[in-house]
Amino acid sequence: MSDHPTADIHVPRGLRLIWLIPVIAALLAAYLGWQALRERGPTITVTWRTADGLVAGQTKVKYKAVELGTVDKITLSDDMSHVVVRIRMRREAEPLLTEIARIWVVRARFAEGNVSGLDTLLSGAFIVLDPGGARSPTTKLAFTGLEDPPAVRSDEPGTTFVLNTSQIGAISAGSPLFFHDIPAGEVLRYKLDPDQERVTLHVFIRAPYDGLVRRGSRFWNSSGVALELGAQGVRLRMNSLSALVNGGISFDTPAAERSGAKPAPEWIFPLYPDEARASASGYRDKIKMLTRFDGSVRGLAAGAPVEIYGIQIGEVTDVKLDFDPSGASSQVTVRFEVQPERMSMAGAAAPLGADNGLAVALRLVARGLRMQLDTTNLLTGQMALSMRFVPGAPSVDVAVESDALVLPSQPGGFERITDAAGNFVNRL
Questions:
Q1: Which of 20-34, 56-70, 327-341 has the highest mean pLDDT?
Q2: Predicted pLDDT of residue 47
Q3: Where are the alpha helices (DSSP H) in 12-80?
Q4: Which residue blocks in 186-230 are alpha helix, DSSP H?
Q5: Which DSSP letter does residue 394 get?
Q6: DSSP letters for 165-181
Q7: Where are the beta strands (DSSP E) in 275-381?
Q8: Helix (H, G, I), strand (E, B), or coil: what is residue 211?
Q9: Distance, first Cα to last Cα, the chain
Q10: How far apart are CA 49 and CA 205, in angstroms?
Q11: Where are the domains of the chain?
Q12: Smallest Cα–Cα separation from 395: which of 359, 415, 358, 370?
């Protein structure tokens, strides 16, 4: 037995627990790394003209307000003409990167009376991803970003329609569409036709208002304020404050057309300059006529009403001078259309139409029918083309020129007064 004492070595328990801390930290780091790799999706690139508002490491990509990625790097293109933005997406965003996906930047915008993106003044700009409807089996990784937000997103229910007109007035992309003064859609874009004479517009009408459109629906320009001085006096028309600022289009479907066929995708609707023209378009049957005047037709223009007994039955389509340099036979040719659906023929075996228009015109002219100019507004000098029966009028033939019936004319009441006054002065 040894006389030396035996050392009792005791390892403190706390020392073993200390070694567990780095182990736990390593496991946690490994888990977080694995989680990041599991959530990491593809890296995409988007090109824009400018990187205004975008910050690498901060700007987020969103879809339906859900974050799906973060801007990773912003560089200039090789030719320095645009910027290339590299974005690291999350894995769940991969099915949304379709061939028809659209990407744009949401920032505060003040243009053409439209204000949007005010929330970004505090939170900063962000990027929106719109997958464009149906998902695609292939993933697209390179995009050209939209410089302006699209008017309609792919998940918004509705239908796109095509309009055509000669003048768009104050209408622009983003102008509202109204149905009975209810906002129902907006103008997507417009483009000048190849003939450079007319303009084609694409408009979007939201559901359920798109279901109200039929082939017989009518669209008209309802922009701004319209002040009309006519035979009915002064009329002031304003659709809404939005239409006053941004321009606008209104549409309606007449009761007789509401059970009609829906338009095909390639159907093109005419855009009328005002509601009155749109309403008159419902008269499909038209009889072309013309008349000639030897004197002045100041105040008469295309669109002026054609009346009989004070009732409008058509409108003037063209006013043209047939000038004779010798001054012997210069005349003004006025072309107009009579819409027989505006009136009924008492005791007639068949309704008035293009088929029997010549026979009816012959009978009316034989009874003394003459065309003359009448002043509808003394303040503006606007004129209307009137049909009058003149007792004792000489018999004349009704000719046909270029499918138009030629009706005889006589000086209007105001013109007869001025002519009589002139003759009286000449005799003095």
A1: 56-70
A2: 95
A3: 13-39
A4: none
A5: P
A6: ES--TT--TT-EEEETT
A7: 287-293, 305-308, 311-322, 331-338, 369-377
A8: helix
A9: 170
A10: 31
A11: 40-144, 158-280, 287-427
A12: 370
Identify whether the C-beta of residue 227 lies closer than 8 Å to the C-beta of residue 280: no
What pLDDT does residue 59 have?
93
Closest by CA to 363, choosing from 342, 383, 347, is 347
What is the C-alpha to C-alpha distance for residues 74 and 27, in angstroms, rounded to an integer? 34
- What is the sign of the dihedral through the CA atoms of 411, 416, 422 and 428? positive
Task: Indicate the residue type of 32.
Answer: L
Structure tokens at 80: 């320095």
Asked whether the predicted pLDDT for residue 166 surpasses 60, the reply is yes
Q: Cα separation of 161 and 163, whole Å?
A: 7
CA distance 164 to 310: 33
Measured CA to CA, the distance from residue 146 to residue 105 in angstroms comes to 8
pLDDT at 124: 82
Q: Give the model's pLDDT for residue 137.
A: 64
Question: Which has the minimum average pLDDT: 8-17, 95-104, 209-218, 219-228?
Answer: 8-17
For residue 278, give the H/E element and its range: helix 275-280
**Long-range contacts, 260-264 (Cβ 8 Å, 24+):** 260/214, 260/215, 260/216, 261/214, 261/215, 262/213, 262/214, 262/215, 263/161, 263/213, 263/214, 263/215, 263/217
Strand order in the sheet with 60-63: 102-106, 126-130, 60-63, 66-76, 83-90, 40-48, 142-144
Dist. CA 112–CA 348, nearest whole Å: 56
Q: Which amino acid is at 404?
A: A
